[in-house]
Amino acid sequence: MIYYTSDLHLGHENIIKLCNRPFSSLNEMNETLIENWNKRVTNLDKVYILGDLMFRSEMEPNTVLSRLKGKKHLIVGNHDHPWMKKVNLGQHFESVDNLMVLENGKSKITLCHFPMMSFEGKYLIYGHIHNNKPQSYWPLLKTMENAFNTSVEVNDYKPVSFEELIENNAVFRV
User: Fold this and answer.
1) What pTM did the predictor assign?
2) Residue 78 has pLDDT above 90, yes or no
3) Residue 63 pairs with which residues in a beta bridge?
4) Locate the Calcineurin-like phosphoesterase domain: which residues (predicted)?
5) Count of CB atoms situated within 10 Å of the CB of 141
């Protein structure tokens, strides 16, 4: 199975308030996100992480990465560089890229942490914006029917399949 996720912000207490996450503490958020991940993902599954896995975190990155199941592929986000310096990326990730284009049957899918107005292929999967709609870019972004937000706030705080991304984004766009 192939899953997508982004913007977990493990270790970032203020994200609970900023994105109105349903957690009462940093520990509850961290443990719920890891538990949700591991309930879905097996060690044989691929998981594309579209950035911002950890931010301002006191968590030890090697420990966190070792706890997360699956064959992980990292698309680097704007908050990833500090924790990336503390790990052997090859030990935890199948690939690390700023942008990636996948083949999904007949269609190409561009993966990038940031939303893009122009991209290669039929679909774009992005993160970065969390559940923020009141931004100047939102009226344009919401009309892009082939672009899907993989931020955890939009996707039940767990990695999701391509089909689930489509369903969850239909609800998010309303």
Assistant:
1) 0.96
2) yes
3) none
4) 2-100
5) 17
